[in-house]
């Protein structure tokens, strides 16, 4: 089995795609007016508009209702990325060292999802991510 992507369903797809394009500094690939993807070396972030819910079971997904997941991106330098983004995006957490060895900063996307950027700092964290 291969973990392929994380998909978020949103009300305002243009605003959310714009947020992730700014965050990742890369353009999304629009596969349809209601669906875009940002493909990174480690994973794909898929973004679907609320209209795509009708393709599945109605009522199973609610846009802008996430309060349990954090979308994370590993970066070479959290502090540098934080400096680049802090005046453009809503800051949730300034760079902070976590007990598991990662330096983390967090932002909030236009519909409320927390987005973390992290850099492995401790030797144990560097080793854990070396093969990923």
Query: Termini, distance in Å?
Result: 16 Å
The helix content, as a percent range, equals: 10-25%
Q: How many strand segments? A: 8
Query: What structural category arises from helix and sheet content?
Result: alpha/beta
Kindly report the average pLDDT value. Answer: 94
Question: What is the makeup of the main sheet?
Answer: 4 strands, mixed
User: Regions with pLDDT < 50 over 5+ consecutive residues?
Assistant: none
Give the strand order, joined by hyphens, for the main sheet: 1-4-3-2
At the first level of CATH, what is the class?
Answer: Alpha Beta
What series of H and E elements makes up the topology?
EHEEEEHEEEH
Strand proportion, as a percent range, falls in 35-45%
Morphology: globular
Total domain count: 1
CATH superfamily: 2,3-Dihydroxybiphenyl 1,2-Dioxygenase, domain 1
Question: What name does the CATH topology carry?
Answer: 2,3-Dihydroxybiphenyl 1,2-Dioxygenase, domain 1
Number of helices, where a helix is a run of at least 4 consecutive DSSP H or I residues: 3
Computed Rg: 15 Å
CATH architecture: Roll
Overview of the molecule:
This protein is of the alpha/beta class and about 130 residues long. The chain has one domain (about 5-130): 2,3-Dihydroxybiphenyl 1,2-Dioxygenase, domain 1, CATH 3.10.180.10. It is about 20% helix and about 35% strand. It is built from three helices and eight strands, in the order E-H-E-E-E-E-H-E-E-E-H. The protein has helices at about 15-25, 80-85, 125-130; strands at about 5-10, 30, 35-40, 45-50, 70-75, 90-95, 100-110, 115-120. The chain has a four-stranded mixed beta sheet with strand order 1-4-3-2, with helices on one face. Strands 5-8-7-6 form a four-stranded mixed beta sheet. The protein is globular, with a radius of gyration of 15 Å. The chain starts with a strand and ends with a helix. The mean pLDDT is about 95.
